[in-house]
C-alpha cells in the first residue's frame, strides 16, 4: 500500500525544443530588472540589490492560450527570458553560475496589475497578482548547446501586431550569472528551478481576443491568445 494518504500530485513539466520535457521545481521571478521598466513603474532605475518573487510551477503553461483571470480588469503582459537550471547548490560563485544552466526560452509574466497595486499599497505579498492559474505562458526551452548563453539581443512583444514592448537583453540590470549567484546565497538551487529574468518597458493591458507575439533574438518566439 502507498505511504501517501492522497494521490501524488503530478510533476509539472514544460516542453523542450528537442521534443523532451523539463520538470519544474521552483519559479523565481526578478522584479524591475530593466531600467526603463523600473521608471515606468515609478521607481529609481539605479542599480539596487535585486528582489525576487515566486510563481508556482503549475502556473507555467505552454498551451498557447491565456484564460483571462477572474477578479481583475487590468491584466498586463510582461515578456521575459526564461532560464532553466540543470543543477544548483548554495553560494554559487559568479564564475560558475552559467555551468548550472540547461537552457533558455521565451516566457510571459502575466500580472493582475490592479490586484498587485492593492497589495503594494497595503505592504502585502504579490502572489494574488502574480501567481494565479496559467499566469506564466511559456515557449519551449532550448538547450545551451543550441542557443549558447544569450546576453544580448532584441526582446519584444506585440499585441494584435502593434509593438508594445522592446528592449535588449544587454539592458538587464542584473545579468543571468548574477541572478543565479545571488539567489544561491538565500536559497538552495536545484535542477528544475527556473528564473524569469525581468521585462523591458511597455507593459500594458490585454483583453480577451488579443493575440500576444513575443520574441527574443537567438532564443525563439511565443504566440499566446487571450481567451
Give a verbal description of the structure.
- It is a single chain.
- This protein is α+β, with helices and mostly antiparallel strands.
- It has a single domain, classed as Fumarylacetoacetate hydrolase, domain 2.
- It contains 5 helices and 17 strands.
- The strands form 5 sheets. Strands 4-3-15-8-9-12 form a 6-stranded mixed beta sheet.
- The radius of gyration is 17 Å and the shape is globular.
- The mean pLDDT is 94.
- Its EC number is 3.7.1.5.
- This is Fumarylpyruvate hydrolase.
- It is an enzyme of class 3 (hydrolase).
CATH superfamily: Fumarylacetoacetase-like, C-terminal domain
Q: What's the shape?
A: globular
Poorly predicted runs are none
Q: What is the chains' assembly state?
A: single chain
Just name the CATH architecture.
Alpha-Beta Complex
Total domain units: 1
- N-to-C span: 43 Å
Write the element-wise H/E pattern from the N-terminal end onward.
EEEHEEEEEEEHHEEHEEHEEE
Q: Can you list the strand order of the major beta sheet?
A: 4-3-15-8-9-12
Protein structure class: alpha+beta
Please give the share of residues in helix.
10-25%
CATH topology: Fumarylacetoacetate hydrolase, domain 2
Average pLDDT taken over every residue: 94
What is the helix tally? 5
Name of the level-1 CATH class:
Alpha Beta
Overall radius of gyration: 17 Å
Query: Can you count the beta strands?
Result: 17
The largest sheet, given as strand count, sense and whether it forms a barrel, is: 6 strands, mixed
Tell me the strand percentage band. 25-35%
